Queue: 3 jobs
Job 1
Amino acid sequence: MNAFISTFFNMHVLGRVWPALLHGFVVTILLSVVIVPAGLAAGLLVALAQTTRSRALRWAMAAYVDLFRSWPPLVLLIYVYYGLPFFGVNTDAFWSVVLALTLNTSAYFAEVFRAGIEGVPPGQVQAARATGLSLAQTMGWIVLPQAVRNMLPDLLSNVLETIKLTSLASVVTLPELLRAARLAQGNTLNATPLIAAALLYLALLWPLVRLTSRLERRMLATA
Amino acid sequence: MRGFANNFLQWDAVAPYLSSLLAGFWTTIALAVTVLAGGLIGGVVLALLRTLQLRPLNLLIVLFADIFRALPPLMLLVVAYFGLPYLGLRFDGFVVATIVLGAVLAAFTEELLWAGLSTVSQGQYEAARSTGLTFLQMMGHVVLPQAFRLILPPLTSRVIATTKNTALASVVAVPELLSQANTAQGYTGNASPLTAASLGYVVILLPLVIFARRQERAGGRPA
Amino acid sequence: MNALGEPALLEEAMSTHAQPRPVLALHGIHKSFGATQVLRGVDLVVHEGEMVFLIGPSGSGKSTLLRCCNRLEEPTDGAVIVEGRNILRSGVNLNQLRQRIGMVFQSFNLYPHMTARQNVTLALCKVAGKSRAEADSIAIRMLGRVGLADRVDFYPRALSGGQQQRVAIARTLALEPRIVLFDEPTSALDPELVNGVLGVMRMLRDEGMTMVVVSHEMRFAREAADRVVFMADGMILEQGTPEAIFTTPNHPRLRDFLSSVSRA
C-alpha cells in the first residue's frame, strides 16, 4: 500500500514537478482559448457558405467537412507540423497545433451550425425579409439567436472534445499538460505526475461533461 | 510548393514501405473492430445494469462514465501504458489500447443509451411486460431497438471518433498505420508515407462519415 | 311468506343460485405513492363472463386499481387472487401469468418499429412459445376479428388511432387471456373513431370474455356493462347494475358525479 502511494501519489515528487505541470496546464488552456474561437468562427463561415445558392460552393464545403471529419487529428497534426516549413512558414509547434486542430474542429462546428440554421423554421426568414431586413441582418438578429438555443448541447460537447484534443500536441513536443507530465514521469521515474495531470484535466473538464450530459438529455426528450 | 511535393508526394519514398504500411492498415482495422465491439457491447451492458436501479452500482457507473468522457483518450492511454508497469502489470500495447479506447467508447455509449432508454415512453415498457415478456425480452425486442434508433446520430459520431482514435495507439508502440508511417518517415527522411497513411485513414473513415451525413439528413440533428 | 305471498325461500334460492366462478378477486387493496394514499382498502370480485365498468372522478384510483390487477402497480397491502392464486406472493411466475391477464392501454402502446402482425406475434413466440408459422396464423386471425385483416403489415404510424387500439386489443387477445383489463381505451381517440373500438369490445362481451373497463363512456356502460362500480377517493362507494347506478344512484358523491358528467 505504501509503495502504491509513493508511486502514484508522492507528495515529494509532486512538489518538484508542480511548476512544470502548471506551466503545461497554462499552455493547454492557451491552446483551447485560441482554437475554440477560431474553430467556431471558421465553422460558422463554412456553415454560412453552405446556405448560398452556388452548388459548387456547397459541394466544396461539404467536401471540406467530410475531409476533416475523416482525417484523424493526430495524423493531420503531424502532417501540418512537418509540412508547414515547406510553405515557407517557419513557426513554432504552437501554431502548427492551432492550425491543425482548428481545421479539425471547424468541420464539426460547421455541421452543428448547419443543422442549427436549418432547424429554424423558414417562415422566420420570410417574415424577416418581408419587413425589409437584409440577409445579414436576418441571420444576425433572427436566425442565429434561435439556432443557438438548439445548438447549445452540441456546441458544448464539441468544445469539450476540442480541449481534450489539445493533449495531442504532446506528440509534437509542445509543452502542454500531457507532455509536461510525461517528461516529469520520465525524469522522476515516478507515476505521480501522470495522476496529477489527470486530476488537473478532470478539474477542467468534469463540470463541462456534467453540463453536456444534462443538456443532451433535455434535447433528446424534446426531439 | 515544389519542396512540398518532393517531401510529401514522393511515390519512391513510399513504395519500399508499402507492405509495412499495408500491415499497419490492417492492424488499424483490427484494432478498430476490437475496440468498437468491446466498447459498444460494454456500453449496452452498463446501461442495462443501470436500469436495475441499484444505488451503489449506479454511482460507480456514472463515475466511470464521467471520468472516461472527461479525460483525453491519449492521457488515458499514457497513464495505462506507462503507469501500470509501476504496479507490476506490463501489457502489450494493442491490449492496452483496446481496453482503454474500448472503455472510452463504453462510457459514451452508456450515457447515450441511458438517455435513449429514458426517452422511450413508459408505455412501451408497460405494454411489453403486460404481455408477459421477460426483462431481457422486453429490452431486446422492444426497448433497445427504439432507444438505438433515437441515439443513432450521436452514436455514429462516437464510432467515427473512436476509429480515428486508433491512431493514438501509435504512441504506445502499436504497429498500426500511423506508427508504420512515422517509422518509414524516419528512415527516408521524407514525409510521403504520412500522405499515404492519411489516404489510408480517409479510406477507412469516409464511408462512416458519409453514413453519418445521411443519418443527419434523416434525423435533422448533427452528430 | 312475504307480502306478495311468495315463499321466502325463493329469494334465498335466487341468492344461492350458482354464480359463475370468480376470475379475479381483490381483497383489501391499499396503495400509497409516498405520502399519498390512492387506494384505501378496495374489495372487488369479477365473475367469469362479466363486464365490470369502473367509473368515478379523476384521482379516484380507478386506473391504479386496474394496474394492480396485473402488478404493473404493486399494492402496498391486500391480495389479488387470479384463478384461485394470489399473484402478489413471491415465487409467482409473473410472465406466464400475464398471458392470462390482458391489458389495453389508453395510449395503445404499440411497438412503433414493428408491423401490426409483428406486434401481435412477438409475445406469442417469446412467451407462449409458438412457432413462427403458428404465431402468424393466430395473428392474422386475431387482426381479422378486430376488423383489420387488410392492415396486417402496416406500421402503427400508418394506422388511425382507432385502428391502433384495435391492433392493441388483438395483441392481447392472441394470448388467450381469461380476463382483459381496459384502461380508458377510448379516451385518446377522436370521437368518430371511438365507435370502432367500442364495437370490438361489444363483440368480446358477447363472446363471453371477462372484462374490467375503466372509462368515461357512460352510454356504453349503460348498454353493455353487467355491473358498474363507482369509486371515489380510493374506495368503492357504490356498485350495482347499470340501471341501479345510473337511474337510481344512492350515494351523494355518485349523484354529484353523474350530474356533473351529464352536464359536460
Job 2
Amino acid sequence: MFKIVLKRILKNKLALSGLTFIFFIFFVAIFSSYVAPYDPYKINVYKVLTPPSKEHPFGTDELGRDVFSRVVYGARVSLEVGFLAMGIAIFTGTILGAIAGYYGGWIDTIIMRLVDVMLAFPTLFLILAVVAVLEPSIYIIMVVIGLTGWMDVARLVRAEVLSLKEREFVLAARAIGASAGRIIFKHILPNAIYPVIVAATFSVGGAILIESGLSFLGLGIQPPEPSWGGILSVGKDYITVAWWLSLFPGVAIFLTVLSFNLLGEALRDAIDPKHWAED
Amino acid sequence: MIPILFGITLICFIVINLAPGSPATFQEELSPKASPEAVEALKKLYGLDKPIHERYLNWLKMVVTLDLGKSFVDGRNVKDKIKERLPITVTLNLFSLLLILIIAIPIGVYSALKQGSLFDRALTVFVFTGFSVPTFWLALLAMIVFGVNLGWLPISGIQSIGAETMPFHERLVDWIKHLILPVTIMSFAGLAGMSRYTRSSMLEVLRQDYIRTARSKGLPERVVIIRYALRNALLPVVTLLGLAIPGLIGGSVIFESIFSIPGMGQLFYSSAMARDYPTIMGILIIGALLTLIGNLIADIAYFIVDPRIRVKRDV
C-alpha cells in the first residue's frame, strides 16, 4: 500500500512540486540563521522603509529591518504552529472519534454532540476569544488552533471505526480477549491511518492560514518576533507607501499553504482505490 | 437543537473563565492604587464573589432572557451594542453569499459539462488558489491596486465623509462603491469551494440513469441540463451553503478590521483587544446562533426543494 501511494505521488507533477517546496521551506526554516543575510531584529534608522534593492531583495520595514531575513525566520514560526496544531487536532480527533465509534451508545452521543456544538461556533470567533482572554503566545496559539480543528477528524475516524469494528479480524481479536485499548490502537486505527494522513496534510495548511490571520490581527505571534502575518499587519499600516511589506510575506504564506494542499489532494487520490485501475 | 444551544453557552462560559485572574484584577492592573475594599466591591458588582457554577447559572438565566450584560468598556448594554452592529455584518454576509451563488453555480455546472477542458482545468487552479490564499492578504493587494494605485474604490468604511447630506441615489452609489472590495474578497474563498462542490455534484448527477433516459427520449439538451440535472445537483449545494456560514461570519472579524467596517466583527475585535468579557461572550453566542439559524434555513430550503424528504415523512 505504502509503495503504491508513494509511486502515485511521485508521478503527480503538482504534488511533486508541492513536496519540493515543502522540503525547501523546511530547509529555510531549519537553517534560517545561515539563509538570512541580516539579523531579523537589527534596527537600522537610516534604512527605514526602503524599497526592494540588491542589498535588501524584499526591502526594509518601518524600523529598517531586512524584510527578506524576517520572512526567512517567519518560516520557522509558521511551520512550528502548522505542525504542532495539526498534531493536537489529529490526536484529539482520532482519540475522541475512535472512542465514539468503538463504544457507541451514550458516549458516542456526548462526543458527537460536542462536535456539533464546536462546529456551531465561527472558528475564528472562538480562537480570538481564547487568545484575548489568555495572553497570546506561540504555544497558546498552537493549542487553540489544534483544539478548534479536531472535529472533522473525529467524524472521519468515527466513521472508519464504525465500519471496521464489525470486521472479522476485530471480532477475532475480541474473541481472544484483547482489551478495548489494544483493539482500537493495534487493530482498528492502523487500518484507518490513510484518511487521517490526508486530513493531517490539509490541516497543516489550514493552521498556517489561521496563525497568519491571528498575527495579522495582532493577536497571534507578538512583535518583534518575525512572523508572516505580523509583517503583513505592518504592511497594512504603510499600505500607501510600502507595497513590498504587503506582497512578499503573503506570497510565502500562499506558496506554503498551496504546497500542503496540493500534497493532500494527491494523497487523497493516491489512497483512493477507485484511481488505482489507472496504473 | 436545545442541547446544542446549552453546549454553546457552556463553552462560551468556560472560555471566558479560562482567564488567569478575574476582570476585577484586570481593572486593578489599570489602577494599582485600588484599595482591597474597592476590588471587593467591584467583584460583587460583577458577581465574581460567587462560586463558578452559581455564576454560570446566573449568567445562563440572563442569556435566556436575552440580557447579555453590560460592557466593561462603556457600561452600555451588550445587546444594544450588538444590535447596532449586526445589520451591517449580516448585510455583508448575505451579499457575499449571493455573489458566491451567482458566480459559483454557473462555473461549476459549465466545467462539469466540459470535464477535462481548458476551462475545467482553469477552475481546478482557481479552486486551489482559493483554498490556499490568505484572504486578508488578497484584501491588502486589492486595496493597493484598486484603492491606492488606480484610485477607483475607497478602501475603508461604508460611506464617505458627509454622505448624510448627499441625495439618495448618490448615497446609494457611494455605499455600493464602499462594499465592492469587501464583498468581493469575502466571497473569494467560498467561491472556490462552492464551484468545486457544484462541479462534482453535477458530475455525479450526469452519470445517473434518469439523465440517460431523458436524453434518449429526445429531450433538448438544455432541458436535460437545467430541469433534470441542475435541480438534483443543487440539493447538496444547499446544505453546503448552510455550512459556509460560520466561516463567513468568522471571517468578518478580519475583513471588517481591514476595511474599517463598523460591524459585529470589528466590535468583536475591539472587545477582544480590550478584554471586554461580556461583549466577547455576547458576540460568541450571537455568532453561534447565526450559524444555527443558517443551518435551520438550509434544512428548510432542502425540505422545500427536495420532494423526497416530504414523501418520506408520510411513510
Job 3
Amino acid sequence: MPLLVTFLGLINWLEAHFLACPFKGHTGLDCPGCGFQRSIVALLKGDVSHSFELYPASMPIIALVLFVPAHIKYDFKNGAYLIKLNYGLIAAIIILNYAYKTYTHNL
Amino acid sequence: MSEDQFPGQEPEFTSNPKPSDFSNQTPPGAPYGQFGQINLPNSTPVLILGILAILSCCCYGVPGLILGIIGLVLGNKDLALYRSNPNAYTESSYKNSKAGRICSIIALVLSALYVLLMIAFIIFFGFAALQDPQHMKEILEGMGNQ
C-alpha cells in the first residue's frame, strides 16, 4: 500500500513538473517531440490507448531505453540488429506522426 | 593389452598430452588468438549516445545534432580500428559499434530535419510571429479560413 501511494505521488509530481518545450512556449505549436511526457504519464497510469494517441513512439522508445542497458550487460545474440530495427521504427513513427498532425491541423 | 585397442581410438588416460591436442584453440592466422580479443573501445558509448540523441529531440534539435555528430565520429573511429585489425576485437562489439553508428546517423538526420523545419517556420511566418503565440494563432486561423 505505501508503495502504491508513492507511485501515485510520483505520477502527480511528474505531471506538475513537465519540462516545457521552448518551441511550444514561443509559438503554441507542437514540436516533433511534444506529447512524449504526457504519453509516459498516461502509460504509468495504465492508459495505453491514450498514451498511444498522445505520442505513438513512446512505447518503442521505452522498450529501446530498457533493452540497450540489458544488451550492453548480457550481450544478446541479435541485440545490435534489434536495436537498429527499433531505432528505425521510432524514427519512422515520429516523422509519420508529425506529418499526420500537420495534415489534420492538430499541432 | 595395447594390441586389443581399435586403431583409431585414443587411449582414455594419457599421462603426457601431446602438444597437438591444444592446436585447435588458436585458429590459423589469428595473431592474438580466439580468446585474446578485446571489445572495441567506443562500442558502448556510441550506443548510449545514439539513444540519448533521439531522447533529446526537444530544444530545437540542437542537442540531438551534437550527440549525433559525436556518436558518428566515435563510431567511425571504431570501425576504422576494427578494419585495421579485425582479429583483435570481438565480433559483438563491432556489431554494437555499427548499430550505434547507424542510430547516430538516424538521430542526426531527424535533428537536421527539425532544425530545417524551424528555419522554414521562421521564413514562412517571420521571426516576430514565433515570439508571440497570440499573433501566431491569428496567422494560422487566417490560413484555415482561406
